[in-house]
Amino acid sequence: MKKKLFLLVILVLVPSAFCKDITMTLDQKEYYFLTGEDALLTIHTNNTYDKAINGMLSYTITQEINQGNFHYSSTNTKSSSFNIISGENDVKLNFGTSENPMTLTVDMDYSFTEQEQKQVILENIMIHFVDDESQKQNQQNQVSEKSQSAQQHPSQQQNSQQQTTQEKMQEMLDEMFNQNQQQNTPQDRLQNSQMSQDSNALKKQIQEQLQQEQKLQKEFQKNLGENNEFQKEHQELLNKGYNLTGGNIDPETNNTGDFELEYQNKDGKKASLQGRLENGELERLDKDSQESRQNMLEKLKENEKFQKYDEQLKNQGFNRTGTKFSNEKNSTEIKLNYKNELNRTAEITAEIKNNTFKKVNLEIEKNRSYWWLILFAIPLIGFLIYKKLHKKPVEKKIGKKKPAKPFDHKKEAKMLLAKAGELFSKKKYKDAYGTAAQAIRLYLAYENRLNKELANDDIIMYLRNNKKPYKNIKKCFDLCSLVEFAKYKANKKDFDKIMNLGKKIIE
């Protein structure tokens, strides 16, 4: 009887131990988007493990390029760490956009290790970019796959070996920096080329040039990924829930060049690592994130010197108009800008190093109108002396003090928006996007009687809680943040949308 009971327990427990898996589902096999739209795909995940699973999501994007008699197949494989929480969840993946009609074929592979190496494979997903709404043919055609042992997929078994932290990071670097290669495809080079050569010779030349560039980038990525200091900072962001989402490198040699990596967590907060590798050694490494910026601002508000200066400026009629951050080696400089109704400016500058404020300084713009005031004052003083000598003193009447003129936030926001346009025309894209966001943020804060500068997240939370429109504003803030500190590639189309939104809100 005991043996039977023991066997029964095994029969009950064994299935429960082995039935745990991960299922990934797409609503469609083929997706249609208008040119200029982002190709956002929603993956429905079902994780029956009683914990979050951290694995590697790889996807291969294939594009067929046809130009006259020239045919070229462009393929890019991308990888990034991918965390799937326990239970059912929806995750959005952005496969970018296209200004021209085209079709992409996407193969996805999610690999993870739980006692053994496992995979979930979704193949031949089609993404179509079309010019007209009538060309969209979106139909419900669900595609669903469960995790299987990696051994059941011999063709991919070699790529599914258990990876060390460094190898995973290297894969993510490969994926992120391949985006730059995709932006400079043979199709682009063919269109821009004026050479009247045979298409086969041109194809060979393009391929050789690409191979040289890719080799240099691969070697630089490898040297960067093997740097211990870089590994430490990268892993720290991953441990905090950030995933690598973008990047850019500018190698001069295989172990010297500049780099920038972009990260984002599930709440949409962004972070970045940027710096310079010199002969294989990190010459500079700056870490930045919205989260750390907010924490530094909160810490600054607790500083007695800052509180004194901030109160002094408020009493003198100054209002805060913006905040800027800049990183230099192991320190961060914070500049808080102020302006009064006479357009005089002031600035509080704080330097934080090793989580401690080293200095907090106040600088107020001096009045630049001394000479004409003196010239005007001389005859006025003479007239007053004459009146005093020839007339009896008049008893002073005590009247009510005129209230200070209210801060014209609408006027200030318009000025900032105009300044953003000027900065963009001067190709100061980072400052242009930051100033445009500052204009919208300033207007919304004072228009809603909050009467203080707020962070992007605080503004969005207020609008959402008070059931006011916020979605387009959030998109605008997110894009501005990307350009401002994560170097998303600025372009006129995006910037014009932000400017039009700002004008619509402020008007």
Shape: elongated
**Mean pLDDT metric:** 77
Overall structural domain count: 4
CATH topology of the largest domain: Immunoglobulin-like
Q: What would CATH call the homologous superfamily of the largest domain?
A: Immunoglobulins
> What is the count of helical runs?
14
Low-pLDDT stretches are: 1-18, 65-72, 152-163, 179-198
The helix content is 40-55%
CATH architecture of the largest domain: Sandwich
The span between the termini is: 84 Å
Category from helices, strands and their pairing = alpha+beta
Could you give a short account of the major beta sheet? 6 strands, mixed
Beta-strand proportion? 25-35%
- Using the coordinates above, name the CATH class of the largest domain: Mainly Beta
Question: How many beta-strand runs?
Answer: 18
Q: C-alpha Rg, in Å?
A: 30 Å
Topology at a glance:
Elements: H1 2-18, E1 22-26, E2 30-34, E3 40-47, E4 53-67, E5 70-84, E6 87-94, E7 102-114, E8 116-130, E9 143-146, E10 148-149, H2 154-157, H3 165-183, H4 186-192, H5 199-225, H6 228-239, E11 243-253, E12 256-264, E13 270-278, E14 281-289, H7 290-301, H8 304-315, E15 319-328, E16 331-339, E17 345-353, E18 356-364, H9 370-390, H10 409-425, H11 429-447, H12 456-465, H13 471-486, H14 492-506
Parallel strand pairs: 2-8
Antiparallel strand pairs: 1-3, 1-9, 3-6, 4-5, 4-7, 7-8, 8-10, 11-12, 12-13, 13-14, 15-16, 16-17, 17-18
Helix pairs in contact: 3-5, 10-11, 10-14, 11-13, 11-14, 13-14
